[in-house]
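Hi there, hope your week has been kind to you so far. Thanks so much in advance, here it is:
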Amino acid sequence: MTNAPPLPSTLNPDGKSLFNPPAPARSPAYDEFPAPIISSNNGFDFHIYYMPSNHAETQYARELHERIRREFPELRIYRFWDRPVGPHPTAMFEVNTFTPHQTGAFFSWLTVHRGPCSVLIHPNTNDPYRDHTELMSWMGRPWPLHTELLKPRPADPAPSAS
């Protein structure tokens, strides 16, 4: 915001928070993901992890999977994996959101209902490695990912014409 006037240091009536003057329009981030997040396929992935060796945690995750399918049918919800898949070190299932509104609603709902499960949340850009290592957030205990699977691989050399 070049040439914007300085913000006031005035406090709100609570005596703690800062007064922000009204903006001419609300932030476009309420309706569209900021670049470089790509929303054409899906904006965010939520990977819900559980320990398959823990019967109670597995049961909770199964019930959570069903509850999400019923409460959020507009989201893309993948199968319930009972083993590690891809860079994910434990059993999990994945939920995709497509808009900032869905992402915020699902995030706040999952904060309350995730139970013993950990959740890896990451945006989708054109850089899966960065998405999973720098731009990600966790709910609960973070798990170490197999990030070597996300690094770009060198292109196969062209066959020689001999």
